[in-house]
Amino acid sequence: MNTVKEIVAEHGHESSRLLEMLRCLQSPTNYLSEEAIVGVAKELNVPISHVYGVASFYSMYSTKPRGKYIIRFCESAPCHIEGAAEVLEAVQDQLQIAVNETTTDGKFSLELTSCLGVCGVAPAMMVNSTVYGNLTPEKAKKILAATE
Amino acid sequence: MDLFQVTIDGQIVNVAPGTTILQAAEDAGVKIPTLCHHPDQQVKAACRVCVVEVEGSRVMQPACAYPVYNGMVVHTNTMAVREVRRTVLELLLTHHPQDCLQCERNLHCELQTLTQEAGIRQVEFPQELRNLPVDESSGAVARDPNKCINCRRCIEACGELQGVDILASINRGYDTVVGTGLNKSLADLACVLCGQCIQACPVGALREVDHTQQVWDALNDPDVHVVVQTAPAVRVALGEELGYPVGSGVTKKMTAALRRLGFDKVFDTDFTADLTIMEEGSELLDRIKNGGTLPMITSCSPGWIKYMEHYYPDMLDHLSTCKSPQQMFGALAKTFYPQTQGMDPSKIFVVSVMPCTAKKYEANRPEMRASGYQDVDVVLTTRELVHMIKQAGLNITALPDEEFDDPLGLSTGAGVIFGSTGGVMEAALRTVYEIVTGDELPSLDFEVVRGLEGTKRASVELIIPEAAADGEVGTSLQVNVAVASSLSEAKKLIELVKTGQEEIHFIEIMCCPGGCIGGGGQPRPTTNQTRTARMNAIYREDAGMPIRKSHENPAVASLYADFLGSPLGSVSHKLLHTHYTKRKVY
Fold this sequence. Notes:
The complex is a heterodimer.
Chain A: H1 4-10, H2 18-26, H3 34-44, H4 48-57, E1 69-74, H5 77-81, H6 84-95, E2 101-102, E3 108-113, E4 125-127, E5 130-132, H7 137-145
Parallel strand pairs in A: 1-3
Antiparallel strand pairs in A: 1-4, 2-3, 4-5
Helix pairs in contact in A: 3-4, 6-7
Chain B: E1 4-8, E2 11-15, H1 21-27, E3 51-54, E4 61-62, E5 73-75, H2 79-95, H3 110-117, E6 141-143, H4 153-161, E7 167-170, E8 177-180, H5 196-200, E9 206-208, H6 212-220, E10 225-230, H7 251-261, E11 265-268, H8 269-290, E12 296-297, H9 302-311, H10 325-333, H11 336-341, E13 348-354, H12 358-363, E14 378-381, H13 382-391, H14 413-416, H15 423-437, E15 455-464, E16 475-485, H16 487-498, E17 506-510, H17 528-543, H18 554-564, H19 570-576
């Protein structure tokens, strides 16, 4: 894993590239640790509050530990009409967690997201970077059960 | 330049291009309500309380940010405008606790005033409070983010003005709130506790940590001898909340009020300001003569000290080792004073009234126990003293004029001007010049170091007679001095020192803009306008003092004769000097 120092150096110490740096820092663990946020602020010589402000603004970043798989469940209107609530309930039931929680084994985190842009196959969810559509409670459970 | 003709509510005004609707309306005698707007800050257009109708514009425009054009027609008081403003306020109130009666800002709150002016009697939307923790960890500045209305004025004060950027906008959308990096508490951050955020806050989200009860308890205890010291800047601001116009000096009413609150002795920090000049002036001459670290930088301002410790830990040897006047007072009040009175120092309780929140932190520093006790027990801000005076039901306008008590109450004009930026420098120059040259100063007023300007410079030529060879007048020594107030200005100066670009011998730095008169503990509003008025009052006090030079203070002279010995001597070293601690930013 690259250190904060290396990642900041790879991005030329340009504070305008903070978003990319935070992405690199987050990718191995799915979240931004305190060390990562303070470290990047120190390397860039910018206030910690500014880095934290950015990290807390974008929903794709997390400052709390998250699971290996992040389920982003679409909460937009078309998915809702196609029965998303029922699927979401099935997912919560299977994982025994509520929205914005992580399973105790650290495998899954469940989040809500706005439109994934695949309304044609609503309801939909994204597991890490893969999008799944035409979900039913059973199908969603199967998808999650098939993950490593 | 051609003026633009603007019609505001039917009234025509001619204003310069670049003028905002808000400013033009002021010219037309129309007051547009504002909330995120601050007279000394940049335009934010964050709150939308100031919206107006501009003919030809599809939507309403924020008056604070919208520049006028020639022929513009503005309506500030239509039914539609009033309704939108009302909705804006109601939306703010959905997030804002409705416990105004118990709030420290009650009757001094900009949101409360606007709500009152808008005639809002009930809020249409359901309340959704934040339920975030209140942070009193620093013991000096308290933050209650539940009351924050996201105007961002504190962010600008903390960032642009003071350059420490502890506060920032955190989270997104509905959850947005002003917070700190990683939501840490102020005690765990490189916050200097200057309280300029408090001065910027329109509501009760930022305040000092209240210590008035501790003082009431001490005053109520018959076994405790309670002494109080008042900083120079307090006397020119206290009156603002007690029936006097801004810029009134109320020294003698203040002393009378303090006695009626029950303080056993009413002393003056100005006395130890004079003492500071003796010690610091001697230290400067010693550094110049013996090749010590130069420039020497003043150490009166605890926010500034904490800033240096965090942000320039490798330059701490530039700081004068002199304690601040507050702490010199504390050390003497528990050594010299009880000795002269035959009292037990453990029974003495020292209260400070300061224009400052960082002074609360300073008094609690572990090294500030030279007397064997905590030298200063409790620090109150000017605002807290106002609260106590009001709680006691005192009408200070009706009180007689009273003097400070002896011996720690006798001071000079040099001590008074410590309250304003440039004051320590001017006081030091008055003394150093006369001690070094043996000549009397032709004029005591060093106008060049006065005023609100961020950084000021001066050079003084000192002719040292004792160094004169036969037939010569003496050795000439050019002393270059600089003065800065606010940390953003201080930073510029320190960077110059760091790179050695400029030869300066002595630097005065005050953490808050304008010096202590603009401190974080002063009455609100503290703006450049009130700062200037208080500053003028300080120099009026100085001009009216019978003695205006620290080295001519007879009480200081007898303190040296009877107790301290000489400046920089061993007793001084133990009681009046200190050391600093390297701290981190990250």
